UniProtKB/TrEMBL annotation, chain A:
UniProt cross-references to PANTHER family, sorted A to Z: SORTING NEXIN-30 (PTHR45949:SF1), SORTING NEXIN-4 (PTHR45949)
Protein name per UniProt: Sorting nexin-30
InterPro entries given in the database record: AH/BAR_dom_sf, BAR_dom, PX_dom, PX_dom_sf, SNX30_BAR
Gene3D superfamilies attached to this UniProt entry: Arfaptin homology (AH) domain/BAR domain, Phox-like domain
Originating species: Anser brachyrhynchus (Pink-footed goose)
GO CC, one annotated term: phagophore assembly site
Coiled coil: none
GO biological process per UniProt: autophagy of mitochondrion; endocytic recycling; piecemeal microautophagy of the nucleus; positive regulation of autophagosome assembly; protein transport; reticulophagy
UniProtKB/TrEMBL annotation, chain B:
Domain of life the protein comes from: Eukaryota
Keywords, in A-Z order: Protein transport, Transport
UniProt keyword Protein transport, yes or no: yes
Region (Disordered): 1-20
Molecular functions (GO terms): phosphatidylinositol-3-phosphate binding
SMART domains: PX
Entry-linked PROSITE patterns: PX
Record has Protein transport as a keyword: yes
Gene of this entry: SNX4
Family as reported in the entry's similarity comment: Belongs to the sorting nexin family.
Recorded GO CC terms: early endosome membrane; plasma membrane; SNARE complex
PX domain boundaries: 36-163
Protein name: Sorting nexin 4
Length: 588, 426
């Protein structure tokens, strides 16, 4: 009986031609003449669900690309072998999540073990990295100022940028790919017995050079992959060793500006931290700085997004409670995501962010040194065109494109719903009081009418709460993921660049047809870079997918919950006035 | 004092029976006869000016109730009537029973619509609701202790041909008070019964508040429709999204289905609410009927006051003529002063006429007084009956409205719980 036109465009409201069914007796006899108007019109079915779910191509879990047989530095092999053995053991235990990566890393470990000596790729562990191994050229603040920080342990007199970092020096957290600087860091990075392994992993074989998961200069190395797995297991087994929270927003009013700071609290048992607990205050700028630093220093990884930087001043009150709270939640999520990341959480900038009393001093230092870096800081070499993306990354790219599209649609729908709800609320606010006015005219009906009026008022309140919740809790998370997808696509492009460079250089060499005993080092470096990147990205994608699933599960369940609560509140209100309405007045 | 039946009117029902609604009902036509307006049909025909017109005809079916109790199905009588005939019937009742709050007809044109499409008189939904409204009207009349006994009403239900002529033959149109006269009376009446004055104010305010309520309700319905329908978009996008997901896909897809269900549910919900709106509308129109009774009272009272005033002035004239004094200025008095007095014979004649007129006038005044008191009594009895009916009906309407809201909330909880379950499986 209803002809519904489903939306071909997201927004317009369509009207239905109603032909109501007859509530009374059906006709005793069919009409004699004319067009029967009473016949029930069937409801036209809506357009069929056009998008039957086709199982998406399984997330490619190709074996780790086996690199050409590179030789590995002798000393590394043992460690790698041990790690590999551990990984295989774990794989045998059948942990599904890390199975593929475990298998991959196991095979890669094996592959790498096969390598003979000689060529030492950038994959070598830091402690024995040879100076000749050019660092991958990644824009690295990973090429971090060696002097003050790296030497902090070795050179007590070196100026420390962090006066409050405590008596012990910060262990150097070298950028995984910054192999060239590793020589400078060598002494400081020799495996030190006092570096504690994360608790709870004692039973696993982890005696890597310096014991930390990110010790290796290349994330693509088997050991770093394995360590990542180990960390995942840790998180699974609730043996986390780093907890970060963002809370307690406070407004600061200065002559030049007004801004909000948030308290960032850290609790940890990690050796990389001098103290078990820290509490610092940070403002949005600081988070932004951190993110930039992470992107610079870990370009092969997916860096979580920050909430939007700019707010239209006139429209949004950036000091309103709701806005600040929404932001706080997003910043908290940002830090937690980094904390959960096996590589990013050990990043030096992150450490400084969490611990430094005077972040600005550190920032200035960092920037000055960065400018000295000059030429090969910029990782993206540019100018190389990738012929074709490997399947798995093409799949990721396509997925991200569709994903962010769909999220955008959902965002628009959610906004539209909120808008419609608010307009509904406006009308309801006028509706309720009319019953009250009417009640004023009546005698016997006065109470029932007042009751209805109050009831509608309660529904208004409930609706207001629902809309607020959706605005504050639902929309921001959606937007976060859209930002996340965008930054991930950029990382994919960077990866393409790296691969393109490698292929171009490889071709150039092939064309020269020189009979060289080995591939020139710069091509080798490119190759390493590609492998590192691919490995990092794959691992990050997998963990991202998993987190995304959990995040959305929680988000959507939350949305359903809020709606349920809204209806429950309304239900209670209406049920409570039924007895009032049914009340028999006393007979006069 | 017993009410004196004036010609063409039925006796007002004695007061005591009015308190027991059910008692009366036994005597009502509604108990003896099953009445339904079962169908509506589009017709074309020629109107009075021989022009083609399209109208809707409604099938009225009646069946005697008693024979059903014997286990037999009595035959159904039926005839077709169009809206204008219903109007004619009602106008007849209004004129013939001015002391009765006559049940209203459903609206002539669609009003307070919440979406533009059903503003058309030919719209099937409007026609359907009108059919229900007409049936309701007939049932109201049939269950009214006074109105149900009316012969014209009975013929309306049972006599297809010649009914119109029958109605016109009653000459009721001649008895109808002109609007202008009524308006005049309203302004000029000096001493209306206080209760009627209050009732008049009440009915004005009732009309105002129910109109407002209906208007806002229509807007509320509009907005609610929008909220539900936009959720349908979730259904589509979840489905599309599920296509690119592995583990999340199933959960998303089935949740999307629930969003579609949610969006579709609003149609039935709002349709049910239309019945509530119709119940309110009936009382909106009832307020007008109340107002009509008040107007009649004012008219009668004004009439009475005028007659009394006229009588007083005649008496005065008489006195003046008799005593030769002029207490008040009169043209006659002036002219006679200017142009000479009348002869005693002339004066006597005038006095005689006046005395006759005075006597007539006094009798008329007496009967008007009586009429007025009758009217007030019987009207007030029906108004009390009406008040109780109104309170009962509106309470029922509010309860059913609350029940509708409860049902809507429960449906909402159900759908979202289902969706939540789907999400949890993601």
């Amino acid at each position: 009986m209803y002809f519904l036109i489903f939306f071909s465009m997201p927004f317009p409201i369509f009207f239905s031609l109603l032909a109501a069914p007859r509530p009374h007796n059906p006709p005793a006899h069919p009409p004699q003449r004319g067009t029967p108007l009473g016949a029930r019109r069937k409801r036209a079915p809506g357009p069929p669900r056009g998008h039957t779910r086709v199982p998406s191509p399984p997330f490619p879990s190709l074996p780790f690309p086996s690199p050409p047989e590179p030789s590995r530095a002798e000393p590394c092999r043992g460690q790698v072998a041990r790690a590999a053995a551990a990984a295989r053991g774990r794989a045998a235990q059948g942990r599904s999540r890390s199975a593929s990566s475990a298998a991959a890393s196991a095979s890669s470990a094996a592959a790498w073990q096969r390598g003979g000596g000689g060529q030492a790729p950038a994959v070598a562990t830091q402690s024995r990295a040879e100076p000749s191994r050019a660092e991958p050229g990644r824009a690295s603040s990973g090429r971090r100022p060696p002097a003050p920080v790296a030497m902090s342990g070795a050179a007590p007199g070196a100026p420390k940028p962090l006066p409050s970092s405590g008596p012990k020096s910060l262990r150097e957290m070298p950028h995984p790919l910054a192999t060239s600087s590793s020589e400078e860091m060598g002494p400081a990075l020799s495996p030190s017995p006092d570096l504690l392994l994360p608790r709870g992993i004692a039973d696993k074989d982890l005696s890597l050079p310096n014991g930390t998961p990110v010790d290796t200069s290349s994330p693509a190395s088997s050991s770093s992959l394995l360590n990542r797995l180990q960390l995942d297991d840790d998180l699974d087994g609730e043996t986390r060793d780093l907890f970060v929270t963002v809370d307690d927003p406070k407004k600061h009013v200065c002559t030049m500006e007004t801004y909000i700071t948030y308290r960032v609290t850290t609790k940890t048992t990690r050796a990389e931290f001098d103290l078990p607990e820290y509490s610092v205050r940070r403002r949005y700028q600081d988070f932004d700085w951190l993110r930039n630093k992470l992107e610079e220093s870990q370009p092969t990884h997916l860096i979580p997004p920050l909430p939007e930087k700019f707010v239209v001043k006139g429209v949004v009150d950036r000091f309103s409670e709701e806005f600040v709270e929404t932001r706080r939640k997003a910043l908290d999520k940002f830090l937690k995501r980094i904390t959960d990341h096996p590589v990013l959480s050990f990043n030096e900038h992150f450490n400084v962010f969490l611990t430094a009393k005077d972040l600005n001093a550190y920032k200035k230092q960092g920037m000055a040194l960065l400018s000295k870096m000059g030429e090969s800081v910029k990782y993206v070499t540019g100018g190389y065109k990738l012929r074709s993306r490997p399947l798995e990354f093409a799949a990721i790219g396509e997925y991200l494109d569709t994903f962010s599209l769909k999220l955008g649609t959902i965002d628009r729908i959610a906004q539209r719903i909120i808008k419609e709800q608010l307009e509904y609320l406006v009308e309801l606010r006028e509706y309720g009081p009319v019953y009250s006015t009417w009640g004023g005219l009546e005698v016997e009906l006065s109470e029932p009418l007042e009751g209805v009026s109050a009831c509608i008022g309660n529904c208004c309140t409930a609706l207001e709460e629902l809309s607020e919740d959706m605005t504050e809790d639902f929309l921001p998370v959606l937007r976060e993921y859209i930002l996340y997808s965008e930054s991930m696509k950029n990382v994919l492009k960077r990866r393409d660049q790296v691969q393109a460079e490698y292929e171009a250089k490889l071709e150039a060499v092939a064309l020269k047809k020189e009979d060289r005993p080995k591939v020139p080092t710069d091509v080798e470096k490119c190759q390493d870079r590609v492998e590192c990147f691919n490995a990092d990205l794959k691992a990050d994608m997998e963990r991202w997918q998993n987190n995304k699933r959990q995040d959305f599960r929680q988000l959507l369940m939350g949305m359903a919950d809020k709606n349920i609560q809204y209806y429950e509140k309304c239900l209670t209100a209406w049920e409570s006035i039924i007895p009032l309405l049914q009340d028999k007045p006393e007979t006069k | 004092d017993e009410p004196v039946p004036a010609e063409g009117r039925h006796t007002a029902v004695p007061g005591r029976a009015l308190h027991e609604g059910t008692q009366q009902m036994e005597d009502c036509l509604a108990k003896k006869m099953e009445i339904t307006v079962s169908e509506a049909e589009k017709r074309t025909g020629r109107n009075a000016m021989n022009m083609q017109e399209t109208y809707t005809a409604y099938l009225i079916e009646t069946r005697a109730v008693e024979s059903q109790n014997e286990g037999q199905c009595s035959p159904v009588d039926s005839l077709w009537r169009r809206y204008s005939e219903f109007e004619l019937l009602r106008n007849y009742l209004l004129v013939t029973y001015p002391h009765i709050v006559v049940p209203p007809l459903p609206e002539k044109r669609a009003d307070f619509v919440w979406h533009k499409l059903s503003a058309d008189n030919m719209d099937p939904d409007f026609v359907e609701r009108r059919r229900i409204g007409l049936e309701n009207f007939l049932l109201r009349v049939a269950s009214h202790p006074v109105l149900c006994q009316d012969k014209i009403f009975y013929s309306f239900l049972t006599q297809e041909g010649g009914w119109k002529e029958m109605v016109n033959e009653t000459g009721f149109q001649l008895k109808a008070d002109s609007r202008l006269k009524a308006l005049n009376a309203t302004f000029r009446v000096k001493n209306p019964d206080k209760r009627f004055t209050e009732l008049k104010h009440y009915s004005d305010e009732l009309q105002s508040v129910i109109s407002h309520l209906l208007r806002v309700r229509a807007r509320v319905a509009d907005r609610l429709y929008g909220v539900y329908k936009v959720h349908g978009n979730y259904g589509r996008v979840f489905s599309e999204w599920s296509a690119i997901e592995k583990e999340m896909g199933d959960g998303l897809q089935s949740a999307g289905h629930h969003m579609d269900v949610y969006a579709a549910s609003i149609d039935d919900i709002l349709e049910e609410e239309e019945h509530y709106a119709d119940q309110l509308k009936e009382y909106l129109f009832y307020a007008e009927a109340l107002r009509a009774v008040c107007r009649k009272h004012e008219l009668m009272q004004y009439d009475l006051e005028m007659a009394a005033q006229d009588l007083t002035s005649k008496k005065q004239q008489c006195e003046e003529l008799a005593t030769g004094t002029m207490r008040t200025f009169s043209l006659k008095g002036m002219t006679s002063k200017l142009f000479g007095q009348e002869t005693p014979e002339q004066r006597e004649a005038k006095i005689k006429i006046l005395e006759e007129q005075i006597q007539e006038g006094e009798e008329q005044l007496k009967s008007k007084n009586l009429e007025g008191r009758d009217f007030v009594k019987s009207a007030w009895a029906d108004i009390e009956r009406f008040k109780e009916q109104k309170n009962r009906d509106l309470k029922e309407a509010l309860i059913s409205y609350a029940v509708m809201q409860i049902s809507m909330c429960k449906k909402g909880i159900q759908v979202w719980t289902n969706a939540k379950e789907c999400f949890s499986k993601m």
